[in-house]
Structures are given as structure tokens and as C-alpha cells.
């Protein structure tokens, strides 16, 4: 079982990337860098690289500047309505990032709320701000900030309370937070920043919507517009190399810093609450205002633009097939991801060095690698006559989902498995129960809550995927986010707004329902 | 002169009552050992004195000043002027030995040269000068104990609270460190409140022993009195 799981990750993700590297180096029929020469000789490509790096850097700075305080506030303080606030702020992570862009674009349109409330001049000024680098930074910061927030909040909950109490004996909370707690979770913050940088670097839906040319779109257009797979491969390679380099540097820095690395940090049990005192009310009001503006704002504008139920019915009529296809793929993908993530999480738990570390690092690399890179890799590997059963069917999408999102389900399952007492697993081992049965009979029932959360997270990530799905989906197998992207160029704004809101509902509703069910069962236990 | 006072304090964690109606006074310069089995409320007494917990009922006074009462902390832990050594030592793993000693001095606004002098003196006192740049993870158990002690003492606290700091050490190291604590106390003259479940440790350190059981003080006197009453 373990060997099959590792093999699946290799075939789904690592092999396509490896084959892509090989192809890019043998483009002229022999070993060489011909494919890169054209790429590197073009000043336009260097401009695109510069744009991408600028966008990724500014987005990372924005996401850390907002996500770090947000993580502290929702994770550790007595701020009002923390759970609801966490859910609201985390929502953009569940949705395709371009959805926020569509909302802001509607806000700045000639008939949008900015024009209605502040006049046409203000709407034009807002649109000038939105279309270009500042707008991209705003949208991507909103989309990826939750990643930093959730990693910081989870890591802070893992800081042993005793270390903070030792600090409180000699210094007030702000000093303890700055000098004790945050340095201990620095690796978690660093991981969040590295992931945001890479996700922003590989983002292909927001920059074209807001007309900001970036490098990641290059391999997409080389393939979809010119069907030049060699150029697409060469264009994808720098992003893959950069992903490996950034994650390598992050791992090195995390090792030097020591301490807790992101999600999966063992909870210390007793978590101290930081009292905000007199600042509680103003801080609560300020954070809620920012959350409602950044997250709720674009969604409310979309609701307003979509209008009445008739538009939703029309939208469902025109794109309902894409919706159901996307949901079906997400359910199957989520189940496969939850299973694969669980088996690999058990491997990481039982072999924390060597094989476990390698699998964890590989999954993280595949998550951070841009969707277009993975898409090009899958096409290079599977676009062969003998592989039509994969390439021409939804199997290629499922393989892509497994490659891209195993890191998410692996980490959720790891966190759940850390709560299973070691003795339970060791007792099964002593009783002569083999690895596979230990997994199914002992670990899975004890960690079912984590598996359910992993299924949900996996399904949501499959449903929101754009970059990879856009490249590899077989004819007639587009999903709703892809359909919205293609309609966005020339579709009716009200229909697009309605489709966006349908996507929001389909994504958020199961998350809310499952959270309630899991929460209730937790109370009963 | 009275330094620390608990006046009829009660504290419960949910339904479990940790201490119930405890009154206790610790005078300046005393070496008070609180002795009792696990879960009898010894650690809770230290947490109440340090300000890490507030009593549900009753009062805590430091040098006659009301420090906490009826669920409220009136003097924050960092302003009580007390040092504490935790059972698991709670050394900050990301800071060096110097960093561990420096944080509290810095937070109190002690000038840089003064900080350096005090840290140097303290490290000499606990014989750790050569390991000043090491991180806690690189030290042996006994060396870590000394760092925890130095971290608390460098702030020149009015009283030092110690929560079973030697319980995890082998008997020989335990005895040696006890002697070092006594020597340091004789030299620096701080008030000591020491919590343990080990009678030998208690009689080796105390000028006064307080025996606790099920959240209440059941005996209080000199080591000789307590031992005679057994």
C-alpha cells in the first residue's frame, strides 16, 4: 500500500516534471539548451520575468503584513467573533483568485457602485488603479493572505505555554510575543511567505484579467495559442527551477531557525490567550471592517450585479454541465487526495527522516509549482497514442489534482495523526498487526476527523483549480472556473457574476455543513 | 518582614478544585519548601504568587500590596519582582544562554553596559561563562538547570519561586545542585519558595516546611517540627 502511494505521487507529479526537464533539454534532437536560447534572447521575456518577480514580491509583502497580525489576532487573542472572522478571512483561499478580481472589476465599471456613489471620475481612477500591478497585488494579497494567517495561527497554538509564561514573568505580552512566540514560529511564517511568493509567481488567472503581463501566462499562451509544446516547456522550466530554489532556501532557513514549521506542530494543550484589554473593541471593529471590505466587498458587488433569480437560472442553463462536471471531479479528486494524503502522512509520521522527509518535500514542491508547469508536464508525458486512456479522459485531471494538492491533505492528515497516541499504534505493532492493517484498523478510525477535513480541502482545491485544468482538460471536460475564465472575455457581466456566485455557494456550502457536523461530533465526544 | 501572602485563596480549574482556602505568609530571607504529593496544589500556589493565575476567591499580597484578588490580577507578573524556575525549566530554545538572561533585563530597560556586567557576573556565579553562546539544546541537564536559575536570579528578584526543578535529575546531580542553590541563597540573600514532593530534598533546603494535601495546607513549621510530628 505504501509503495503504491509513493509510486502514485511519483507518476502523477514528479515524472511529468522530470520528463518536461528532459524534453526541454533535448528539443533539438540532442542534449542542449536550444529551447532556452530563444527564450533568453527575447527582451520581452525578461520584462515578463521582472513583472512576475515584482508581483510575487509585493504580494508576499502584503500577505505577510496582513496575515501575520491576522494570525496572531484570530489565533491567540480575545478578539470578538474570532471563529467567524477566521472563516470570512480564509474564504478567498477556497475560491479561484480571479473571482475577487471580477468583483473589483464590476465595482469600477461604468455602472458599478464606485461610479454610482462617487461619480464616473472616481470609477475611472479606481479602474486605472485596478488594471495593472496595484490591482493584481490587491487581489492576490487578499487571495493568499489566509495561507499566512492560518499557518501563523496554527503554529502559534503549538508554542508551549510554559515558554510564554517564563517570558511573562519578566516582560509584558507585546515583548513576549516579539521575542519569544514569534521567533519560535518563524519557520511557519517563512513557509507561508515562500508559498505565497510561489503561488503568486505561478498565478495565471488574475494577471491576464487585470491586464498585467507575467511570465507564468507565457507557457499557457505558447501552448494554447500556438500549440508550441517545446516553447511552452522552456517557458515553464524557469518557474519549476525557481520553485525548487525557493523551497530549498526556505527549508534551509527553517532548519537554521529550528522550532515549529507550519501546520502539524504538536499542540501544547494549554494555549494562553493574549488579552487585548482596552484595545479589544477598536481592534475588533477595525479587523472586521478590513475583512468585510476586502473579502465581503467583491462578493457583495457580484451579488448586486447578478440581479435576481432569473439570471442564476440562465447561468445554470448555460454552464450547468461545467458545474456538475467540476463537482463530480472534485468529489472523486477529494476522496483520492484524502486517501493518498493519509497513507503518506502515516509514512511521514513513522519515518520522520529519510523517506518521510523526501515525500513531504516532494509533495510541497508539487503544490508550489505553478499549475501551468504541471499542466505542461502532464501533456508532455501523456500526449502519446498509447496513453489516450489517460490523456483524452478525466484521468489526466485527477492525476494533476493528485500531484498538485497531495501536500494539503498530507499536512491535514499529519496534524490529525499527531493527536493519535503513539501507544495505540505501537500496541497494534506489538500485537503483530501489519502496516496496512494498522493504518486501516487503528490509525484511520482514530484520525477520521482529519481524513474528513482532508477530503473537503482536497475537493475544494480541485474545484477551484484553474491553471492546470485550463491546459489539460479533455474536450468537453471543462470545469466551472475554467468556463467562467473563458466567458469572462466576452460574456454578459451579469451572467458571469451569477456564475461566480454559484461557484462561491457550491464551494462554501459543503465547507460550512461539514464544519458544523465535525464541530458537533467533537462536542459529543 | 512579610514578603508574600496568600489570604484564604481558592482556585478551581473547571470542577477540579486546585487550592481551597489556603492562607500562607512567607517572610523575607526564608527558605520555604512546599511539600506534598502530585496534584495537591503546590504548583498552583507558585502560579498564584507569580501572577500566572488569579484566585477565584481570596487575596494575594506582595510586600503588603494587593497583587491579585477575586479573579483579577492587579499587578502583572512582570511587575511583581519575582523570579521563577519551572519544572521543565522553560528555557527559550531559540535564544543563546546570554539571550535567555538578557531578555528580562532588556524588557526592564536596563542599559546595555549594565546588562553585560550583570549577565557576566551571573554566568561566573553559576560557572557557565564558557557556554554563554550555546543554545539550551546544546547543554546537559545540569547546565540547563543552572541557566534557568541564572535567568531568574539575574533580575535580582525579591523572591525566587522554584517548581520541582530538580525532580528529573539523578540523585547525585540533584544533591550537588541543591548545595549550589543553598550557596547562592546564602550569598545573594533572596527569599526562596521551593516546591517538591521529595522529603529529603525538602529537609535539605528548608528553614520552613509547608505540607499540602488535596488543595489545603495540613502542616506548617520548621523541618524539625514537621519531622517530629510525622
CATH architecture level-2 label of the largest domain in chain B: 3-Layer(aba) Sandwich
Coarse morphology of chain A: globular
Overall geometry of chain B comes to globular
Structural class from helices and strands of chain A?
mainly alpha
Largest binding interface between chains: A-B, 20 and 23 residues
Number of distinct helices of chain B: 7
**Span between N and C termini of chain A?**
31 Å
Main sheet attributes: strand count, strand direction, barrel closure of chain B: 6 strands, mixed
Annotated CATH homologous superfamily of the largest domain in chain B: P-loop containing nucleotide triphosphate hydrolases
Give the CATH class of the largest domain in chain B: Alpha Beta
Number of helices of chain A: 26
Strand % of chain A is under 5%
Overall number of strands of chain A: 0
| Percentage of residues assigned to helices of chain B | 25-40%
Which secondary-structure class do the elements of chain B indicate? alpha/beta
Strand line-up across the major sheet of chain B? 7-8-9-3-10-11
What percent of residues of chain A adopt helix (DSSP H or I)? over 70%
Major sheet summary line of chain A: none
Oligomer: heterodimer
Order of helices and strands of chain B: EEEHEEEEHHHEHEHEEH
Number of E-type strands of chain B? 11
What does this 3D model show about the protein?
- The complex is a heterodimer of chains A (525) and B (230).
- Helices cover 79% and strands 0% of the residues of chain A.
- Chain A is mostly helical and 525 residues long.
- In chain A, helix 1 crosses helix 16 and helix 1 (2-25) packs across helix 17.
- The longest helix of chain A has 42 residues, at 309-350.
- Chain B is of the alpha/beta class and 230 residues long.
- Chain B has 2 domains: 1-81 and 161-230, Rossmann fold; 89-156, no CATH class.
- Chain B is built from 7 helices and 11 strands.
- In chain B, the strands form 2 sheets. A 6-stranded mixed beta sheet of chain B has the order 7-8-9-3-10-11, sandwiched between helices.
- The longest helix of chain B has 18 residues, at 171-188.
- Chain B is globular, with a radius of gyration of 17 Å.
- The model of chain B has no long low-confidence stretch (mean pLDDT 90).
- The chains are: A mainly alpha (525), B alpha/beta (230).
- Chain A binds chain B through residues 160, 162-163, 165-172, 175, 179-180, 183-184, 186, 257-259, and chain B through 50, 52, 76-78, 82-84, 86, 88, 90-95, 103-104, 107-108, 137, 151, 155.
